[in-house]
Design a protein that fits this description.
By secondary structure, the protein is α/β, with parallel strands linked by helices. The protein has 17 helices and 8 strands. The chain has an 8-stranded parallel beta sheet with strand order 1-2-3-4-5-6-7-8, sandwiched between helices. The two termini are 15 Å apart. The structure holds adenine and zinc ion. Residues 22, 25, 60, 172-173, 200, 203, 251, 281-282 line the site of adenine.
Length: 340
């Protein structure tokens, strides 16, 4: 085994949490075809290879257009259960012990799929994953930022019967032109309901959007956060406050947020004391699940075992698990490190 091979095997075995994965972004082309058939829906592709060939993006919006199109095959409770079930099985194989997954209810309710259908399907898959793999999970309801504040409030209303099943609200979709401040009142209302807050910021948007996510949305975690590094004061603040960044290397590469993984900012984030984590974002679209992301960074060459162990540690520290659960996961991680 080469050195990179040994490092990749080490990262694969690390117990870890995934904190940034869009469940709609785990829709593999094979399942897309199966659900299209089951629901008698036409999709604009003839073969799985056609679908994969269409996944060539130069920016976030190219991806989002195709991602919303793909989500149209999801119609029934069973569809959402099967989608999330497939993700959990895949994640368990990557030694993910806990996952905090995003879902985009507006992508479905705007097509006439009731909010309850989405929730019931996801909850079934969560229960199955806990029983089958001992994999725990939490749900994060994301608002689509290209839609308006009223639409987000409507979604928060629809979520009322399910509040006890939700950990947090998030903010995703087209970043540029849709700053966090657009959702100030929605996030304040979600906070009053006892929900935690996260937001995509600094993926394509400027450091100012990261500041707004912190100061206006009062987020507990930043999703991506790459462009925060352009601002030294902001970077120092993120380090000082131990703000978790959910970083997604293969996503960044596929969406041309970075030019290659050799110059990916992750090593700089760690060097500057940021609590960074590794995540898959939309693995069916970006060419890999969480261990593929760890492996790609291992191949890029600028992180060693200690750095990867820290990234796994950060994934539990940045989660919304309670202190006792975090401690148990960190003990399991330490046990792995003492054997590896
Ligand atoms: N929705 C799904 N993936 C996303 C990403 N990487 N950025 C913003 N919105 C998204
Ligand atoms: Zn994302």
């Amino acid at each position: 085994m080469t050195d990179a091979g040994g490092l990749i095997a080490f990262t694969a075995g690390l117990p870890k949490a995934e904190l940034h994965v869009h469940i709609e972004g785990t829709l593999e082309p094979e399942l897309m075809f199966a659900l299209a058939k089951r629901n008698r829906i036409d999709i604009p592709f003839k073969t799985v290879d056609d679908v994969r060939a269409a996944y060539a993006f130069t920016r976030l919006q190219d991806f989002l257009d195709i991602y919303y199109e793909g989500a149209k095959v999801l119609r029934t409770e069973a569809d959402f259960r099967d989608l999330a079930g497939a993700y959990f099985n895949r994640a368990a194989a990557d030694n993910v012990r806990h996952a905090e997954i995003f879902f985009d209810p507006q992508t479905h309710t705007d097509r006439g799929i009731p909010f309850d259908v989405v929730m019931k399907g996801l909850l079934q898959a969560q229960d199955d994953a806990r029983r089958t793999h001992g994999l725990t999970s939490k749900l994060i309801l994301c608002f689509l930022r290209h839609l308006d504040e009223d639409a987000a409030f409507g979604t928060l209303d629809a979520a009322q019967p399910w509040l006890h099943k939700l950990a947090a609200v998030g903010l995703d979709s087209s970043e540029i032109g849709h700053p966090p401040r657009k959702f100030a009142r929605v996030f304040a209302a979600a906070s009053d309901m006892g929900l935690k807050r996260v937001a995509h910021a600094g993926e394509e948007g400027p450091p100012e959007y990261v500041r707004e996510a912190l100061d206006i949305l009062n987020v507990h975690r930043l999703d991506h956060g790459n462009r925060a590094l352009e601002d030294a004061d902001l970077t120092a603040r993120l380090a000082r406050t131990a703000m978790t960044l959910t970083v997604c290397p293969l996503s960044n590469l596929k969406l041309c947020v970075v030019k290659d993984l050799e110059t990916h900012p992750l090593p700089r984030m760690l060097a500057q004391g940021l609590r960074a984590t590794i995540n898959s974002d939309d693995p069916a679209y970006f060419g890999g699940y969480i261990n593929d992301n760890y492996a790609a960074m291992a191949k890029a060459g600028s992180l060693d075992r200690g750095a990867f162990a820290l990234l796994a540690r950060n994934s539990f520290l940045g989660s919304f698990l309670g202190d006792a659960e975090v401690s148990a996961h960190l003990a399991a991680l330490d046990a792995y490190l003492s054997r590896a």
